[in-house]
């Protein structure tokens, strides 16, 4: 049955920004503070399709990879040749780690990414990850070997310190002596070395080494269970954000978020600049645990930064926090990236540990939209192998079964209940008729994001108006969504025909396949919108 409405496809979103409709929509029960949303974890099952598609799509010739992959670009991967190979292997979003490199260096990464996107084969998103308020040790002339039981001094002023050389180093944060207490455990680089605080003076923190090793310059310092009293966005961060504005990056990952106000500050700044980028809260501080739901409610998505998080809270709590964040954001329909130590061993070795494989699978079974590689692709010896491993493992975790219990929670009352019902029904129909894909026509991303939140067993193809490059890149982070530009006609049948031709050309569908079409159209001669859902057989 055709869609006999001759109006253009329109989004039901209020305005062009993705951020507004994503905030404060729903919450879920996570065991932190019970709410009324329940999410279904993805089962461990592989779905083989045999569909031949272009490299870089979320599809592969031997399966479907619905989750997305974020890769950190570093010295090993900053060439066009390497970035193309990463995209071919499965990279969806490029991460720029502003803790390292100059603006000039990162500009080279941006330019290559834009050049690759302009060639039309890929739509790589750009994520700028702020350095944040880090506490670090000072410069050392030579590395210091510290043995268990030895005294070591961390000082805010070397000239006034009573620490005994060589076991002394400066700290770059004057309030360090006020933030720590006797009995606290000081961790170096997340726990490579640890020290018990024994005494505090006006300028010195005297410690006893618990876990020894080699201490080098500019090491990251954490106190377990505490966060430093530093602003969430530093002067350097603002300079980096201005760099991101000039280059129209798609996502900002805000480091060491403690409260929702930290996220709101950056969102206000971007809004004033008329910038559409999404702000992802990096959950990595102890203080953020007290405001977790509020932070996620305020933000446009989240990154579970497990390295620093595991330094500030008991490490055994990290898996529970990860699961909670993923479930909250599933309910809020916001993307979650699980990051840090995903394939750490592959920095040095060409194959992963079995524990790392299980870790990736667990994150995806919980419902994470994306996993992230850091040192593995920034400076590791086997960046392409790491991406291939991540993509292969991701294909073995495919979607969530649409259980009867989930039906009770999906369509709810509210301004978006119609859209949510349509998206959920599209997923049910796709399963019932064994469709090849769910196809959305969207000007703002709403239908694609709704469909993504239901975790259907088929790919979600989002057709966006020609020229909506920013929206297409933004959708690159959402689970299962593959976005393409399309010229929208005033005649819906022309638009649908063009979309189906595109699907055929990419090998996504073939004759006698079913597709589910979801869209929002204007009724002729009125301002009323009608949300439509169709099942079509490809001819």
UniProtKB/TrEMBL annotation:
Keywords, alphabetical: ATP-binding, Glycolysis, Kinase, Magnesium, Metal-binding, Nucleotide-binding, Pyruvate, Transferase
Domain Pyruvate kinase barrel intervals: 65-387
Pfam family, one: PK
Top EC category: transferase
Record PANTHER family: PYRUVATE KINASE
Entry similarity comment: Belongs to the pyruvate kinase family.
Name of the protein: Pyruvate kinase
Organism for this UniProt entry: Rhodosorus marinus
Domain annotation Pyruvate kinase C-terminal: ranges: 421-522
Keyword Magnesium among UniProt keywords: yes
Pathway involvement of the protein, from the record: Carbohydrate degradation; glycolysis; pyruvate from D-glyceraldehyde 3-phosphate: step 5/5
Molecular function, one GO term: kinase activity
Keyword Magnesium: yes
E.C. number: 2.7.1.40
Catalyses which reaction(s): pyruvate + ATP = phosphoenolpyruvate + ADP + H(+)
Cofactor: K(+)
Residues in the signal sequence: none
SUPFAM superfamilies, A to Z: Phosphoenolpyruvate/pyruvate domain (SSF51621), PK beta-barrel domain-like (SSF50800), PK C-terminal domain-like (SSF52935)
